[in-house]
């Protein structure tokens, strides 16, 4: 399962779930059923075609605070900026210029544009004479997107456990499949 | 017409008429048009697709592979759930193969072994599809627990297989639990497609969704007319 999956999961035990909906700040303490905590996780990396626009589109969906906790537990915090780039107005202006990224007609076209952009980034990463501040920014943004691509899209957990911070129940992950079945007394 | 994902690797949970009705409904001109308006591109946040009870994974694979045609947007995350670990493995293979074959950008998060939507975070699901165990049966098979020994024996196989069709009283015992969970798991823009058979009494179910759950509901797909009654019905349920 992709690392990003834990962003959409909570403890399956009923009393834990209901505590989540009644609490206004579920992440403020370590005793929350969200996010679940990885224990003894074995990480796997699957290469996926780099599409900067796709990863940029995913970002508004990421619960950053929860993802920070997850990344920290796995020793991958270095790949995650302190704040969600999607909340940065500078990123969003550029995003708006590319607003047709989701255009259904542009499946192939979109991929082509992404490749083109990718090439630009390769070029940008070698300093050029007369490179202005803006190009440096693009370079920095490209690096951040690359790291987020690796962390959110390419990294998955194949073995380990997911533990609830509230009740302590541990859900096993085997061959990439998390098992959330509960023993009868907890259902 | 969009191609159906390959499930040639599936030996036990082969997709049947009900799965194909869901695929036809979700890719029909009227539903894609409705979905594209509902999930308009102006909404920045990507869509989370969840299918509890994936079985072979053919529906989740279809939606993931043809996301841009159906939703007119490519920013799709998909998550499969099944109570049977074998189905989870099959789902991952079906979805991954289809996504690669159609060069889709949709991100498949993985498959979880769970009872319906039990581990899904509140308010997170944008699109849920459910092809339930809808056949009326005298009793409901017991749900597996984590302590059950994983066995490939005939008894275990037939028990797991019975979970994929046996619906208990009126064929509705599992579907009712899923419907009850919808107000919790659906996002503000969340939509669910649920398949029913005639014995499930679709009219009564629609009344329950409206009055009992306070959600909107419309019948959007049918197949197999028997003596004036539709054999199968697909409901669209949304906030």
From TrEMBL, chain A:
Residues 116-135 are annotated as: Disordered. GO terms for molecular function: protein heterodimerization activity; protein methyltransferase activity; rRNA (guanine) methyltransferase activity; tRNA (guanine(10)-N2)-methyltransferase activity. InterPro entries: Trm112, Trm112-like. Pfam families: Trm112p (PF03966). Signal peptide: none annotated. GO terms for cellular component: eRF1 methyltransferase complex; tRNA (m2G10) methyltransferase complex. One of its GO terms (biological process) is maturation of SSU-rRNA. Belongs to the TRM112 family. This is Trm112p-domain-containing protein. It comes from Endocarpon pusillum (strain Z07020 / HMAS-L-300199) (Lichen-forming fungus).
UniProtKB/TrEMBL annotation, chain B:
Gene3D superfamilies: Vaccinia Virus protein VP39. The keyword S-adenosyl-L-methionine applies. InterPro entries: DNA_methylase_N6_adenine_CS, Euk-Arch_PrmC-MTase, SAM-dependent_MTases_sf. GO terms for cellular component: eRF1 methyltransferase complex. The keyword Calcium does not apply. It comes from Endocarpon pusillum (strain Z07020 / HMAS-L-300199). PROSITE patterns: N6_MTASE. This is Methyltransferase small domain-containing protein. GO terms for biological process: methylation. It comes from the Eukaryota. Coiled coil: none annotated. Keywords: Methyltransferase, S-adenosyl-L-methionine, Transferase. Belongs to the eukaryotic/archaeal PrmC-related family. GO terms for molecular function: nucleic acid binding; protein methyltransferase activity; S-adenosylmethionine-dependent methyltransferase activity.
């Amino acid at each position: 399962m992709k690392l990003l999956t834990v962003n959409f999961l909570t403890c399956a035990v009923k009393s834990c779930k209901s505590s989540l909906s009644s609490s206004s700040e579920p992440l403020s303490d370590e005793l929350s059923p969200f996010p679940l905590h990885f224990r003894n996780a074995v990480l796997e990396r699957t290469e996926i075609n780099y599409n900067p626009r796709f990863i940029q589109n995913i970002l508004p969906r990421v619960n950053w605070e929860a993802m920070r906790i997850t990344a920290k537990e796995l020793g991958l915090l270095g790949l995650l900026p302190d704040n969600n780039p999607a909340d940065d107005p500078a990123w969003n202006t550029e995003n708006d210029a590319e607003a047709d990224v989701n255009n259904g007609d542009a499946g192939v076209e979109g991929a082509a544009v992404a490749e083109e952009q990718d090439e630009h980034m390769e070029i940008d990463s070698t300093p050029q004479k007369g490179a202005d501040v803006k190009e440096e920014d693009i370079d920095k943004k490209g690096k951040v997107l690359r790291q987020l691509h690796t962390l959110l899209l390419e990294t998955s957990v194949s073995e380990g456990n997911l533990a609830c911070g509230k009740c302590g129940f541990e859900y096993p992950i085997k061959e990439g499949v998390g098992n959330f079945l509960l023993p009868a007394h907890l259902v | 017409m969009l191609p159906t994902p390959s499930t040639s690797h599936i030996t036990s949970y082969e997709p049947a008429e009900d799965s194909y009705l869901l695929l036809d409904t979700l890719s029909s001109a009227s539903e894609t048009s409705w979905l594209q308006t509902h999930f308009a591109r102006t909404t920045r946040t990507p869509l989370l697709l969840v299918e509890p009870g994936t079985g072979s994974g053919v529906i989740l694979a279809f939606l993931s592979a043809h996301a841009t045609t159906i939703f007119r947007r490519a920013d799709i995350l998909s998550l499969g759930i099944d109570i049977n670990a074998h189905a989870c493995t099959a789902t991952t293979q079906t979805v991954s193969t289809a996504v690669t074959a159609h060069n889709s950008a949709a991100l498949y998060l993985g498959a979880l072994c769970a009872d319906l939507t039990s581990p899904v975070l509140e308010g997170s699901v944008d699109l849920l599809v459910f092809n339930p165990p809808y056949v009326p049966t005298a009793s409901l098979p017991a749900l597996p627990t984590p302590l059950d020994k994983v066995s490939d024996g005939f008894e275990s196989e037939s028990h797991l297989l019975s979970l994929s069709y046996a619906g208990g009283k009126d064929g509705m015992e599992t579907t009712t639990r899923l419907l009850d969970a919808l107000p919790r798991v659906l996002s503000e823009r969340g939509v669910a497609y649920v398949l029913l058979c005639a014995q499930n009494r679709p009219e009564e179910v629609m009344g329950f969704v409206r009055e009992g759950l306070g959600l909107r509901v419309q019948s959007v797909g049918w197949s197999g007319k028997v003596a004036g009654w539709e054999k199968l019905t697909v409901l669209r349920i949304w906030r």
